[in-house]
């Protein structure tokens, strides 16, 4: 379906939980988040009804996010049931990778097509610092496992932060020479915990591109990342630049939060509560249609330097 600005909205991002087994410095408070009651969070049966309603309006791609979606029991069954919706063509997941190694086989069998793994450093000690206690060995093993299963390309999401991991950008780019992965550098955004780091830590995509000669630009109009590759490399390098080169005019996403609200735009304060409509298919579809039509034309972070969202990043799913 088209929104009011003529964009085709065919991609739904579903945040299944705001909880996580890590505490990344730009995302999650060190003390974690208050635990919500079961009644405050969508059940998987409700999530499926909402995905079905979106599918009837033209959604073809679904990505499950969190928090960390793999901490929830039954995610593989949710993926399987989503894969049975005829119009859904692509199912993916964003994860920190800590639990992925043991779950990858079942997720692939259930219908998962692709994985995005958050990995902001290749150094064991720095990984523990950034995530406040994570074990990078588990993530690296999961990457190898996903490649062996054919969940390709494995995408690595790297939030680039000055003074934290800017000294490793070349190391990440070199990974793509021999591995069929897509390294995606994501600009730090002034939202939630990231706002505390933004003034000193913001690193523009162009700074990384200019620091590594030999990146060959690729033509790709299908996504939000500006793609490059090294000569004869097996993988690619992408840059997601919501501030320095915002892509609002081609945004095809709408978001569902774990608490049952639709966010037409990641950085808008607007949310539409649809939880009470879940058992009325016609009304649910109508409210979602209105939410898509209300999607704003663009965000204003490049001038305001702060997200208007009332939610933290872990509550939205990125």
From TrEMBL:
Report the protein name in the record.
GTP 3',8-cyclase
| Residues annotated for [4Fe-4S] cluster 1 binding in this entry | 20, 24, 27
Q: Which UniProt keywords apply?
A: 4Fe-4S, GTP-binding, Iron, Iron-sulfur, Lyase, Metal-binding, Molybdenum cofactor biosynthesis, Nucleotide-binding, S-adenosyl-L-methionine
Looking at the keywords, is Cell cycle present?
no
Name the enzyme's class. Answer: lyase
Q: Which GO terms describe its biological process?
A: Mo-molybdopterin cofactor biosynthetic process
Tell me its family: Belongs to the radical SAM superfamily. MoaA family.
The EC designation for this entry is 4.1.99.22
- Which source organism does the UniProt entry give? Oxobacter pfennigii
Which residues are involved in binding GTP?
Answer: 13, 63, 94, 155, 253-255
Question: Organism's domain of life?
Answer: Bacteria
Is DNA repair tagged as a keyword?
no
Q: Which cofactor does it need?
A: [4Fe-4S] cluster
**Entry binding sites for [4Fe-4S] cluster 2:** 248, 251, 265
Job of this protein: Catalyzes the cyclization of GTP to (8S)-3',8-cyclo-7,8-dihydroguanosine 5'-triphosphate.
Quaternary form? Monomer and homodimer.
InterPro entries from the UniProt entry? Aldolase_TIM, Elp3/MiaA/NifB-like_rSAM, MoaA, MoaA-like, MoaA_NifB_PqqE_Fe-S-bd_CS, MoaA_twitch, MoCo_biosynth_MoaA/MoaC, rSAM
Q: Identify the Pfam families for this entry.
A: Mob_synth_C, Radical_SAM
Q: Which residues form a coiled coil?
A: none
Q: Where does S-adenosyl-L-methionine bind?
A: 26, 67, 118, 189
Cofactor note text: Binds 2 [4Fe-4S] clusters. Binds 1 [4Fe-4S] cluster coordinated with 3 cysteines and an exchangeable S-adenosyl-L-methionine and 1 [4Fe-4S] cluster coordinated with 3 cysteines and the GTP-derived substrate.
Q: Which PROSITE patterns match?
A: MOAA_NIFB_PQQE (PS01305), RADICAL_SAM (PS51918)
> Which one of the record's GO molecular function terms can you name?
4 iron, 4 sulfur cluster binding
């Amino acid at each position: 379906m088209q929104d009011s600005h003529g964009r085709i909205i065919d991609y739904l991002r579903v945040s299944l939980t705001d909880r996580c087994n890590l505490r990344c410095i730009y995302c999650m408070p060190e003390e974690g988040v208050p635990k919500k009651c079961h009644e405050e969070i969508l059940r998987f049966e409700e999530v499926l009804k909402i995905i079905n309603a979106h599918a009837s309006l033209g959604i073809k791609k679904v990505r499950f996010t969190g928090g960390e979606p793999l901490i929830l029991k039954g995610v593989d069954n949710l993926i399987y049931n989503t894969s049975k919706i005829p119009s859904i063509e692509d199912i993916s997941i964003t994860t920190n990778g800590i639990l992925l190694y043991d779950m990858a086989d079942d997720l692939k069998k259930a219908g998962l097509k692709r994985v995005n793994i958050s990995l902001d450093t290749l150094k064991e000690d720095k990984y523990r610092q950034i995530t406040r206690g994570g074990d990078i060995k588990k993530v690296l093993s999961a990457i190898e496992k996903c490649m062996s299963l054919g969940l390709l390309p494995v995408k690595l999401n790297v939030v680039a932060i000055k003074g934290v991991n800017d000294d490793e950008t070349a190391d990440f780019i070199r990974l793509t020479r021999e591995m069929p992965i897509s390294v995606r550098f994501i600009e730090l955004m002034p939202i939630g915990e990231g706002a505390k780091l933004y003034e000193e830590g913001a690193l523009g995509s162009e700074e990384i591109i200019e620091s590594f000669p030999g990146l060959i630009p690729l033509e790709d109009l299908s996504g939000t990342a500006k793609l490059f590759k090294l000569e004869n490399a097996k993988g690619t390098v992408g840059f997601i630049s919501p501030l320095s080169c915002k892509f609002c005019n081609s945004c095809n996403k709408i978001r569902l939060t774990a608490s049952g609200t639709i966010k037409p735009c990641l950085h808008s304060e607007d949310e539409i509560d649809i939880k009470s409509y879940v058992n009325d298919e016609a009304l649910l579809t109508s409210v979602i249609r209105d939410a898509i039509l209300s999607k704003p034309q663009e965000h204003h972070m490049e001038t305001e330097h702060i997200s208007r969202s009332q939610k933290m990043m872990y509550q939205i799913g990125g």
